Amino acid sequence: MNTVEEVTAQVLQKVRPSLVESEKLMRLADRLLEAVKDASRNYEGVLDARLEGSVAKGTWIRGREEVDVFVQFSRELGKDRLEKAILEIGNVVIKKFGGKTRLRYAEHPYVEGMLNGIRVNVVACYRVEPGMWLSAVDRTPYHTEYVKSRLAGALADEIRLTKAFMLGCGVYGAEIRVGGFSGYLAELLTLNYGGFLKMVEAASSWRPPVCIDIEGHYASKKEALEAFGRPHIVVVDPVDKKRNVAAAVTETKLSEFILASRLFLNSPSERFFYIPERVSKCRTMTEVRRALRGRCILGLRLRVQQKPPDVLWGEIKHTLMGIRRALEHEGFRTFRYDAWSEDDTCVMLFELQGLNLPPYYLHCGPPVYLDNAFDFVKKHVEAQDTVAGPWVSGSRLYVLKSRSKTSVVDILRIRLTRGDVSVSAGLMDAIKKARIYKSGEELAKLASRNVSFRQFLFDFLEARPPFLSRQGQ
Question: 39 and 93 in contact (C-beta within 8 Å)?
């Protein structure tokens, strides 16, 4: 078995960009920056344009190149005019380089494009003093300068290892869909502990709540935790003491990261890391059908409108939990649930203990000495769905009832039609029109038409984080 040092050295050779790759990327970044500056000259309120993100810091990893150009606007400029300006500037510049543009959303809309396989973003922010933020992205220039001021020696490569580890373990990404660690958070953790290995060693011993305050903004861990409502992890932003950089990290992703760190130290391997050259194996339909065999999977396919990803995924996650609660209220035991979305399609999956309920169920009533015992008897003694009872067992009343519907599809459809499911308002119409699947073959057909959904379906059925998947072993 390789040592930790041997594995990280091998990984670093694969995730560190070569000198030629770095120079090529920086030439593109510099040309984009100059083009943005030129295109911005005639717009009111533009103060400057800067490179931000991992390219500006020198912490990007091979295969994940992304150029972020931020246009800084005067705080006096209104939000509507800022957004109009950045969309015009971004479209002009990216099209000038021969790329296709795409409107993306964060707090402000921004423009994304692909140039020679490299993702580029043209983003707007306000130039403000620390603590006077008008939008979330206003902190970004300060984040860049802070990280650059702390990068000494080989810390840039250590950060690359951290990001590759988080990517490989499936915990990288602060968007709601993932609920994991942002690139900035990965950088701060590495800087705080002084390197990748020291960071992993520390994380392997974390016991939530975790609290990291690099600049000592708070007098104690207790004070910092209480300032943010005692979440499972707090990493105080060095440039803004009121912000928890780890606010997006879910308890699940934090726990997966802790487990991955412990397993990696116990058995070091490249399989814990994102490796650019490693081609992801495309799952075959034979593998998918084998994994579906004997499983009780409920699926809902719905059409969704284009909207900011975090807005859409907030609605999806709220709706997933609402459907799970409705199913469990009806008597269906739900093991797991998740969702996939691409373009205008979303598929929600629920793994159940069974797709049909028994024809009869036991209904427990009140103790006989309570006032409502008489009401219970009166209600159920002549009811048409009463099969047996009411009877007394111990101190309580019981009755055996029959179900008019036993299929999960029928029951869920009825509840959705009458609005008896907690569904996000933004998905209400789509959910009511959703196609419901309970056949493995139906889901297999859907997977045969879309490779992305096929991989998601297989991963859902395998139910293992990447660092535990059979594929990685």
Answer: yes
State the residue for tokens 């006077």: 132
User: What is the pTM (predicted TM-score) of this model?
Assistant: 0.89
Sheet-wide strand order for 101-105: 46-52, 66-73, 118-126, 109-115, 101-105
Which of 138, 161, 196 is the C-terminal boundary of a domain? Answer: 138
What's the CA gap between 292 and 306, in Å, rounded?
31
Same domain, 451 and 432: yes
Torsion angle (degrees, nearest 10) of CA 465, 467, 468, 470 = 110
Alpha-carbon span 305 to 345, nearest angstrom: 9
pLDDT at residue 470, rounded to an integer: 52
Looking at 223, 246, 272, which one is the last position of a domain? 272
pLDDT in tens, 130-155: 989 999 899 999 999 999 999 988 99
- Rounded Cα–Cα distance for residues 26 and 412 (Å): 54
H/E segment holding residue 44: none
| DSSP E strand stretches across 187-250 | 210-212, 233-237, 240-244
Domain containing residue 301: CATH number:
3.30.70.590
Residue 323 shares a structural domain with residue 374: no
Mean pLDDT for 113-128 is 92
Domain enclosing residue 28, as ranges: 20-138
For residues 396 and 382, give the distance between their C-alpha atoms in angstroms, rounded to a whole number: 19
**Residues 366 and 339 grouped into a single domain:** no
Query: What CA–CA distance (Å, rounded) separates 413 from 407?
Result: 10
Q: Which strands make up the sheet holding 210-212, listed edge to edge? A: 210-212, 233-237, 240-244
pLDDT tens for each residue of 45-70: 999 999 999 999 999 999 899 999 99
Q: Is 326 found in the same domain as 309?
A: yes
